[in-house]
Amino acid sequence: MEIIIGTKKWSSWSLRAWLPLKRSGAAFTETLIALREVGVTEAIAAVSPSGRVPALKDGDLFVWDSLAICEYLADKFPEAALWAADPQRRALGRAAAAEIHAGFASLRGECPMDLALRTKVDLSEATGEDIRRIVHLWNDLRGRFAADGPFLLGAWSIADAFYVPVATRFRSYGIRLSDYGDTGAAGAYCETLLETPDYLEWEKAALAEG
Ligand SMILES: N[C@@H](CCC(=O)N[C@@H](CS)C(=O)NCC(=O)O)C(=O)O
């Protein structure tokens, strides 16, 4: 398989798809497209008709969009358990992943992912609302499934892959979750996301890109 991704320190959507691919244990190659450079639109269009990365090639199959790629990987590698086996738990994970895939526009726009960045900014009210919602969501799911492991649904799942870029933003922009209603569980989960070996491998490569 081949995954087409953007600059690792900036491409949050690429990271979301790459993590489950890594977790699947499948052999894959990476094609990296340098974002924010002259000619990037043409470079992406030459390999990805949607004009966006990530995209996944598996033989003749070409899948675009991070969430569709993740769902394909979950179907193709059932033994990797990329989603929870229980339908209700899986539904909650899919709802959480869908919420970040389609929402939190203010946080995403105001605090773009940049793994090399450490700063402190004044956030808008809309971004504050996004953060409060994420804190509530993380606390809710951690409260339900903490007995089964440290991730959103207990065991690691695609839902966690979708929130890793959010965790990096909280760190990059100096956002303290206790200012947004966290009583501890969301902050601990955020740290867990940033300590997984697969994320650390991505981060190391991202920082080495310069
Ligand atoms: N909904 C898409 C969004 C993908 C997306 O917006 N990717 C950005 C990079 S993170 C991109 O390709 N931008 C094109 C550009 O910078 O020209 C997905 O989930 O994969």
Low-confidence stretches: none
Looking at the structure, the CATH topology of the largest domain is: Glutathione S-transferase Yfyf (Class Pi), Chain A, domain 2
What topology, given as strand order, has the largest sheet? 2-1-3-4
Describe the sheet with the most strands.
Answer: 4 strands, mixed
What is the average per-residue confidence, as pLDDT, rounded to a whole number?
97
- CATH second-level architecture of the largest domain: Up-down Bundle
**Which percent range describes the beta-strand content?**
5-15%
Shape: globular
Label the structural class.
Answer: alpha+beta
Q: Which ions, cofactors or small ligands are bound in this entry?
A: glutathione
Give the total of beta strands. 4
Task: Please tell me how large the radius of gyration is.
Answer: 17 Å
The separation of the N and C termini measures: 26 Å
Question: Number of DSSP helices?
Answer: 9
